[in-house]
Amino acid sequence: MKTITVNCPTCQKPVKYIPENEFRPFCCERCQMIDLGAWAEESYKIPVTPTAEDLDHLMDELDGQDESSDDRDSKQSNGYRWQ
Ligand SMILES: [Zn+2]
């Protein structure tokens, strides 16, 4: 079976579009949450594409909130390290 690869809408990293990837078309939960967060914000603001600065800001916020779940994240992501 041919595997379709897409680019993560958040970070543009190539992602295999397979059922095993529960976050597809995103590369990871973090990118999915960033995109959902950006989308929710846009729904009551001007509909513009988030800038790189916006994404940096969102990632900083997620990093700050996510410290307690780092262990769980690294186990779920098959060794993929965010940094
Ligand atoms: Zn990504």
From TrEMBL:
Residues that coordinate or bind Zn(2+): 8, 11, 27, 31
According to the record, cofactor stoichiometry and binding are noted as: Binds 1 zinc ion.
Required co-factors = Zn(2+)
Listed A to Z, the keywords are: Metal-binding, Zinc
* Pfam families in UniProt: YacG (PF03884)
Q: Which Gene3D superfamilies does the entry link to?
A: Erythroid Transcription Factor GATA-1, subunit A
Top-rank taxon, per record? Bacteria
Q: Sum up the protein's function in the record's words.
A: Inhibits all the catalytic activities of DNA gyrase by preventing its interaction with DNA. Acts by binding directly to the C-terminal domain of GyrB, which probably disrupts DNA binding by the gyrase.
Q: Where is the composition biased (Acidic residues)?
A: 61-70
Family classification? Belongs to the DNA gyrase inhibitor YacG family.
Record text on subunit structure and interactions? Interacts with GyrB.
Keyword Zinc carried by entry: yes
Q: What is this protein called?
A: DNA gyrase inhibitor YacG
- Give the matching InterPro entries: DNA_gyrase_inhibitor_YacG, Znf_NHR/GATA
Region: Disordered; residue ranges are: 59-83
